[in-house]
Predict the 3D structure of the following.
Amino acid sequence: MQADTQLRRPRRRRLSSSVVAILGLIAVFAIVSPDFLSIENAVSILLQSSVLAIIAFGMTMVIVSGGMNLSLGAIPGLAGVVCAMSLRAGAPVGLSVVYALGSGLVCGAIVGFLVGAFGMAPFIATLGMAGIAEGLALALSGGGAVFMPSDAIQRLGSGVFLFLPIPVWIAAAVFAVTLVMLKATVYGTYLYAVGGNEDAARLSGINVALVKLTLYSLVGLLAAVAGLVLAGRMNTAHPSGAVGMEFEAVAATVVGGTRLGGGRGNVTGTVLGVLIVSILRAGLNMTGLPAPWQMVILGALITGTLVADAMMRNRERRYAA
Amino acid sequence: MQCPYLVQLKGICKSFPGVRALNNVDFDLKPGEVHVLIGENGAGKSTLMKILSGNYMQDSGEIILGGKAVTMDSPKKAEESGISIIHQEFNLVPQLTVEQNIFLGHEPRCKMKLFPNRAVSRSDAGKLLERVGLDVGLDERVEDLGVAQKQLVELAKALSLDARVLIMDEPTAALSSREIESLFGIIRQLTGEGVGIIYISHRLGEVHEIGDRVTVLRDGQGVGTMNVADVVLDELVRMMVGRDLSEMFVRSRVPAESGRKIVLKAERLCVDGLLDDISLEVREGEIVGLAGLVGSGRTEFAKAVFGVLPVSDGHIELFGERVTRSNPRNLIRMGVGLVPEDRKDEGIIQILSVQENITMASLGRLFPSGIVKSSIERRTTQKYVDMLRIMTDSLGKQVCFLSGGNQQKVVVGKWLCSELRLIIFDEPTRGVDVGAKAEIHRIMDDLVRQGVSILMISSDLPEVLGMSDRIYVVRSGRTVREFARDEASQEEIIRHAMGGESCAS
C-alpha cells in the first residue's frame, strides 16, 4: 500500500542544537571570564549539576508519561532532614539512609496513588505534596539547617572517586538506570504509551493506575537520593535546600527535547538540558552579576523554553487537525 | 458437535439517560463469514459493538460465545475471548513504533519479565505485517504513517491477539479505492482462515462486495437479517429509513420572495485533508439543511466558516462581503453564531450559571463601559429565559443541573442575546427528548420569521426534511447534491450521502 502524500509532522529540535547551545555558552563565558575554561571549573560545574541532574532524570520520566511533579524540589529537603535527625537520635548510618529514602518513596507513593487511582491532576497532587514535604522538613528540623553528623554521608556529597566527585558518579548511575528503563524495558514503553495516548494504553490492557503509582514512587525515591547527595555536599540538611529546583528540572527536561504533555523525550537530552542550565548558572556567577539578576535571566530562560515548547505543540496540534 | 456460531447476541437492550439506544436486538456471527451491520447515524451499531467488546454492559440480554453465555464486563475479557475491535478512531500511540504498537499491552517478554523479547516480537511483527500486506519498517513511528497504514497496524494488532472475531468499524472511511481493494483481499484471506468478521459500514456499495449476511438496525432495533445474495440495495435503503414524519413540528412557511439577500456563501471551500469543495448559499430568512454522514465534513465546514479550521482554498462570503480574517471574535461581531454539536464541551460552560452563560457572548455589547450592571444583566437574561421557555428555578442555577434540552436552549439563548443574523446549528436536537425537540424547532421557526438565517447540520433526516427550505448533501468533504424542499426524500438523501447513486438511476 502506498504512503499517502500527507504533510510530515513537524520535526522536533534535534540534540545537536543543544550541543551547539552548550558550546556557545562556553564560548561566551570563556571570553567574558578567562578562568571559565579550566579543569577545576568544569569539575565544579559537573558537581553542582549532579543534584539537579538526578531530579531532572526523574522529571523526564514523569513528563514522558504525560504528568508533572512539583514535589521534586521539596522531597530532597525532607530526605536530608530525616537522615540528619535520625543520625542525631543515634541511629546507624545505614538505617538513617533507609529512613531518608523511605520518606521520598512514601511521598511519591502517596502522589502516585492520588494520580493513578483517583485520577487527580498531577500538577495539583504534587503541588500539595510539595507543601506537605517542605512543611514536614521544617517541622522536624525546627525550622533551620541541621548538621549532618556522619562522615559517610559527607563523603557521599564531597568525596572523589576516579578523578570525579562521587555525586557525579551517582548522577551517572541514575542516568544509566533511567536510560535503560525508558529505552529498553516494557515498563518504559508503557510510560511513552500512557503519555502518548492514555486511552489507547488502557484499551491495550495496560494497568495505567499501576504504571503511575510505580512511576511517582520511583521518582520520589530518586528525589530522596538527590536530597542525601545535597545534604552530604553541604555537611548540613537544609529543609528547603532544593526548593525551586523542580522548575529548573522542568526547564532542563524541556530544553532537552522532551515534550510537555507526554509521549516523547529521553534522558540523554535531559543531560544536555541540565548542562545548559548549570553552565549558565556558573557562568553568570563568574561574571559577577548580582544574584537577583541571575535569577531573572534563569527565569527568562525557563519561560522561553516553555514558550518554545507550547509553540511546537500548537503546530503539532494544527498538523493533527 | 460444536456450536455453529462464534457469537450470538440475544435480546440486547441498552439505555442511556434519556435515550433508548438498543431495544431487544439479536445478532449472530458464524466462523468464516463477513456479517455487515448497517444503519443510519445513531441507529445503535456502535453501541451494540461496544457491548460485544466489553466497553459497555447491556441492561438485559445475553452474549453467547461458542454456545456458552458470558458476562462481557471489560475490554480485557473480550480480548481474552478472542474478540478484537478495530476502532474508527485509531487506538494507537502515535509516538511509539509500529512494532511497539502491535504488541502494546501483551509484549513477548524475556524470562526476567522486565525486558521485552525483541527477537520474538520483531519476527512476529514482521509476519503480521506481511499477513496484512503492510510494507513499512517496524521502527517507523505510527505518527509518520498515512491513514491507511495506521488502519493496517490496527489490524495487525488485532491479529496478534489471535482474534477469532474481528469487529471493523467503518474500516474504509478514510481509504482510497486501491487501498480498499487490498483491505478486502485481507478480509477474504482472514475469513478463509475461519475468522468471523463483523463489518460496520455506511457504504451501501460495499455490502454486496464483501458481505455474506447483512443486518439492518434502525433506531436501536433490528429491522432484519438477510443473506446478501437475496437483497437489493433499494430494499436496504427502505429498511434503514421509514421513520414517521407525522410527529414532526410543522414549519410555518412564508412564500419565498425572490431576490432575498445572500447571507452566507461558500465557494469551492477546501480544508486540507477534510474538505474538498464545499459550495453553498444561505439566504436571508431561510433554514438550509446540511445532511450527510458523520465524518463527511459537515461539522468541519462549520468550523472552517468560524475560522477554527484553516481554509486552504476557495472562499467564504458573509453578508455580501468576502471574509478574509475569520476568527470566532470577528464572526460574532459580524452577527454569526455557532451552536456546536458538542454542547457540553464547546457550547456552554457547565459550572457557570444560566445568566452567565446567556450573556457571555454579549457582555461587550451590553456593557460598553466594561462595568457589568447586574440589574440589566438579569433583565436581559430573564427575557431569553421566558422567550425560550428554559426550565430553571433561578437564573443563578448552574447549567450542569439542567436537562439536555434546556442546556441546548441556553446555548441558543446565548446567541439570541448577541443579536445574530446567521446561526449555524450543529445537530440541534441530538440527545434531547421529543418535547424539547419540538420546542427547539419552534424557536428556529420563530427566528427565521424574524429574518434570521439558519444553517442546520443534522443527521436526523425527518428533522432535515421537516425544517429545511433547501438541503445540501455532503459526502467526503464535497457538496454532492442540492435539493429544494419538495424534491427531497429520505431515500434520495441517504443515497447521495452514502454514495449509492448507481442504484438511483
User: Anything to note?
Assistant: The mean pLDDT of chain A is 87.
